[in-house]
Design a protein that fits this description.
The complex is a heterodimer of chains A (487) and B (454). Chain A is an alpha+beta fold. Helices cover 20% and strands 40% of the residues of chain A. The radius of gyration of chain A is 24 Å and the shape is globular. Chain B is α+β, with helices and mostly antiparallel strands and 454 residues long. The longest helix of chain B is centred in the N-terminal third of the chain and has 20 residues, at 79-98. In chain B, α1 packs across α2 (79-98) and α3 runs parallel beside α4 (199-215). The chains are: A alpha+beta (487), B alpha+beta (454). Chains A and B meet through β2, β3, α2, α3 and β7 of A and β1, β2, β3, α2 and α3 of B.
């Protein structure tokens, strides 16, 4: 299953950059090529066989201290030259009205390469074999006639980029990425319930085919099918306030929405106000704000092998390192690129990222991970007199300052007197970010640590959909408002 | 509009070459989407990020012996190179299709006719736009996105079908912020769009917004959760209509258990006889043809006075469930989405909205909607921007943002008291991957009770 063959790239990036250099005071050139195979089966039949190929360049130009961008899929000398001229014209047009003056120091003159993990290349499996596996997974999901729909989906992506600047950067990176989505829908009369493996497309990792273990997937599909039936036959989640134990596949969303986005420095700067919103975090909060309980340790970690948004350099050429954002509950650092750090005068991280060749980079969380504690899952459950366990996200909503959230999960079980008991359906919970994180009272150890991600983090104007990774253990929160479905 | 004319010529050449290379028993369709846009992002009245994007994306849909494979690629715009790439994709498609099982629900390639639609407009110089926006918004805290340029959508197939839609225009989607005496940020939102950019229009709009900002400088009132009488302004209603595209009126989603309005579709729960919804392509916001080349009716009633008239049906659902397609299109997130929805206005004069509301909430906009209980059509989201407490027909104070969680069966059903007599047009401002087409036209709605939860 090789990527589709096409004519080789016509551009030599280094010589292209040298030809563009005269167009502006400073030039950057980012070439991106990506092939994404989307393979899916539904109810045991092929549903989707689609290969997305993408190839293009973004030219950055600085004129009179103002940086602007132009993207083109025409990689010929003429095409790149036209893009550079356009970027220069836009830079000149905005120079009198720029938010921030550009300094070449914002693009470090670094040289390097990075390649993500990939033990088994995607071409080690034939399309017919992969399709047969997906069809077999559908069969495993269908554990009963009451399973009315099954779907199995795998996305295999090869991504490469090259970034060069007239100030000396030359960076090449290449990654293999795998996303999985397996889901069963159960129906009985007027009731419908869905169960998937960790929530829709939460299983996102870097790597090759070694990240896909179909024998394990088959077993998990059978379990998901059974759990969909359990949900069908269960009562609604109660409406009250109780302790909440969240699985790592829901912590992914909790971290993403109530920690990741509020800490993005471009949100704090107001860049995002017109679209996704601002942040409750203020510049003066760094080093002072008690974000959560002392158990809360969150790191920006672009180095965890296999996590979905690992990389060595961001799209501005900044070297990516692990950094504590929140340590022992104290807010230390934001998620901001060199550009935002300069505008705000605060420390950040290497997270200047773009969704593709046709979008300019902005501040983006990448891998954002909650560090394990020392509790076992059994200990956490045993500590709860009256609580609920929830897993696998299915609904997400939070306000534009990232305070008042409401999230829903696929699956839940009550915790009564230290024991997991009945399954309940339509579980939701809501809260306010800072009080919620202060209610974190136990945190799972490394054995309960799960690594997930999503390809669908939306942000920016023009809009960008980008990959993020989130890893977390199980976490126990006290006194959370929970509720179920109903009219 | 040379970008669109060039794209048209390129598609002709690519199609002719690809279709000539097909073997007996094979069929293919080529869909083109593209844009030559200038995107200007603003913060604090200044340019945050200016980007020009020129892109053409081609999708090849290949069929052979009931097998189906699809490929997308970015075109360079240079015919020789793109023909070379497309030939490689065709060979690859042939190989992939041969290794796949039959796809029984793939719609056969058919000739759904020919159409060609051009909406050309002169576009403003970005430098002039930047100066004009800076001048008009001087002294305000302005953030937003300006997008302008030609967009194309087209589909041709090997049976002779060819449809083309080329348009050009702009939108300016913006927010104007202020800080009230309690040091709270407050904002109003505006949206301008169309074919002819006018500096005078933005100046007038910003001036009107400055007046509205005055109402937001009063410290906000904190309200407890509960049920409130409420008026949702058209911008808020447009967000709710957006959510309907997440499967609510899709035939395929209904059959698969993914429609939020299943109980209404199956006659178990009513919607208000005041509520009528249709797809109205006469609004001219997007092409009627879908990626199969099927043309939707110019107007397709979905809800008429609360009663089900049609669900959206695309070719794949039609084939799977044995029904007739009405030319619906699927999107990135779910199948059979609304592209040009219109809610019929009612009889509540806009000027009387506060008087008729009497005491309750004026909700200017909402944010980040999602289903909280799909089976019961319950949705959640946040109030945003200009939202006010109203008492005895007068605005008393802005409110602190509140989370709502309520059902479509109440919003468009039991609690729907009136719709405003004027519907507003909202051009789509989505720009994921490329600028979207489409939009909606909706009135405001007066609700007897609206559930606020946090």
């Amino acid at each position: 299953m090789n990527a589709p063959e096409a004519a080789p790239a016509v551009v030599d990036p280094a010589s292209a950059l040298s030809r563009l250099a005269r167009e502006a005071d400073w030039i950057g050139l980012r070439l991106v090529e990506e092939t994404s195979q989307h393979r899916a089966a539904r109810n045991g039949r092929p549903e989707r066989n689609q290969v997305h190929g993408s190839r293009g360049a973004m030219v950055e130009a600085v004129v009179d201290g103002n940086l602007a961008y132009a993207a083109t899929s025409d990689l010929s000398e003429t095409g790149l030259h036209e893009a550079a001229s356009r970027a220069a014209r836009l830079a000149r047009a905005g120079a009198r009205h720029t938010v921030a003056v550009f300094s070449p120091g914002l693009r470090p003159a670094v040289f390097g390469t990075a390649t993500g993990p990939c033990e088994r290349r995607f071409d080690a499996i034939s399309l017919s074999e992969l399709t047969a596996n997906l069809i077999a997974a559908c069969a495993r999901l269908r554990v009963s006639d009451r399973i009315v729909e099954t779907s199995a989906e795998i996305i295999l992506t090869e991504h490469s980029s090259r970034y060069l600047t007239s100030s000396g950067a030359d960076i090449e990176q290449r990654f293999h990425l795998v996303s999985q989505n397996f889901m069963a829908t159960a129906q009985d009369g007027s009731e419908t319930q869905r169960r998937s493996l960790n929530g829709p497309v939460a299983r996102c990792l870097q790597g090759g085919l070694e990240t896909i273990d179909f024998e394990l997937i088959y077993r998990e599909c059978e379990q998901a099918g059974r759990e969909a039936l359990e949900l069908l036959d269960s009562e609604d989640c109660p409406d009250d306030t109780r302790d909440l134990l969240l699985a790592p596949d829901q912590m992914l969303l909790q971290i993403h929405e109530s920690v990741g986005h509020p800490l993005e420095l471009d949100r704090i700067l107001g860049d995002e106000r017109n679209y996704a919103g601002w942040s409750f975090v203020k510049p003066e909060d760094f080093g002072r704000l008690r974000y959560g309980s002392p158990l809360m340790n969150i790191r920006f970690d672009p180095t965890l092998p296999g996590e979905f948004a690992s990389y060595r350099f961001d799209d501005g050429g900044n070297h990516a390192d692990r950094q504590y954002l929140i340590r022992d509950g104290l807010l230390l650092r934001g998620l901001g690129s060199l550009e935002s750090q300069a505008r705000l005068g605060l420390p950040g991280v290497a997270n200047f990222r773009s969704a593709g060749w046709n979008r300019a980079p902005i501040d983006r969380m990448a891998n954002l991970n909650l560090e394990p504690g020392d509790s076992t899952l059994d200990e956490m459950i045993a500590s709860v007199e009256r609580g609920i366990y929830m897993s696998a996200n299915r609904s997400w909503s939070i306000d534009d300052y990232r305070r008042k959230f409401q999230f829903g999960c696929e699956y839940a079980r009550l915790i009564e007197d230290g024991q997991l008991t009945r399954v309940v359906r339509n579980p939701n919970y809501r809260g306010v970010s800072i009080p919620f994180w202060h209610s974190l009272k136990m945190i799972g150890n490394r054995e309960s640590f799960g690594i997930f991600g999503t390809p669908f983090c939306g942000k920016g104007e023009p809009n960008q959909m980008i990959r993020v990774g989130h890893a977390s253990p199980h976490c126990l929160f006290s006194g959370v408002e929970v509720f179920g479905g109903g009219r | 509009m040379s970008f669109a004319r060039d794209a048209h010529r390129l598609l002709e050449r690519l199609s002719d070459d690809a279709f000539a290379a097909l073997r007996p028993g094979e069929a293919a369709s080529l869909s083109l989407s593209g844009e030559d846009q200038t995107y200007l992002r603003f913060n604090a009245g200044k340019v945050r990020q200016a980007t020009g994007v020129r892109q053409l994306r081609l999708e090849l849909d290949f069929r052979a012996q009931d097998r189906s494979a699809k490929f997308t690629t970015d075109l360079s715009g240079r015919a020789d190179r793109d023909i070379c790439d497309l030939r490689a994709l065709l060979a690859r498609a042939r190989s992939e299709a041969a290794s796949l099982p039959p796809d029984p629900f793939a719609s056969p390639m058919e000739n759904h006719g020919q159409s060609e639609e051009w909406h050309e407009a002169a576009l403003p110089d970005p430098a002039a736009v930047i100066d004009q926006i800076a001048l008009a918004t001087s002294g305000t805290d302005f953030a937003g996105l300006f997008a302008a340029g030609p967009q194309v959508r087209a589909v041709r197939n090997s049976t002779g079908q060819r449809h083309w839609f080329g348009t050009s225009g702009f939108f300016l989607d913006y927010s104007l912020f202020t800080v009230n005496s309690a040091d709270e940020n407050k904002a109003v939102k505006g949206l301008l769009g169309g074919t002819d950019w006018s500096a005078a229009d933005i100046a007038v709009a910003i001036e009107a917004d400055r007046q509205r900002l005055d109402q937001l400088r009063i410290p906000s009132r904190t309200l407890p959760p509960g049920e409130y009488r409420a008026y949702l302004a058209p911008a808020a209603v447009a967000h709710i209509v957006d959510l309907l595209s997440w499967g609510a009126v899709s035939y395929g989603a209904w059959k698969k258990g993914g429609s939020a309005l299943r109980r209404w579709i199956e006659g178990e729960a009513p919607l208000s006889d005041k509520f009528s919804l249709r797809e109205n392509f006469a609004l001219g916001l997007c092409p009627r043809f879908n990626s199969l080349g099927e043309a939707a009716p110019e107007q397709l009633s979905i809800v008429e006075r609360g009663a089900l008239k049609n669900l959206l049906i695309g070719g794949r659902s039609a084939r799977e469930y044995g029904v007739a397609s009405n030319g619906a299109e699927s999107g990135l997130w779910s199948e059979e989405q609304l592209r040009s929805p219109e809610i019929q206005p009612g009889d509540l004069p806009e000027r009387d909205v506060l008087k008729r509301l009497d005491s309750g909430l004026y909700i200017g906009n909402v944010h980040y909607l999602n289903w909280s209980d799909l089976q019961n059509a319950r949705l959640t989201g946040m109030t945003r921007y200009a939202c006010f407490l109203v008492e005895q027909g007068e605005i008393v104070a802005p409110i602190h943002d509140l989370r709502f969680d309520d059902s479509l069966y109440r919003i468009f059903g039991t609690e729907l008291e009136a719709l405003s007599d004027a519907a507003r047009l909202f051009h789509s401002t989505d720009t994921y991957e490329l600028r979207s087409l489409g939009g909606s036209k909706v009135p405001g709605i007066l609700l007897s009770r609206f559930r606020l939860t946090l």
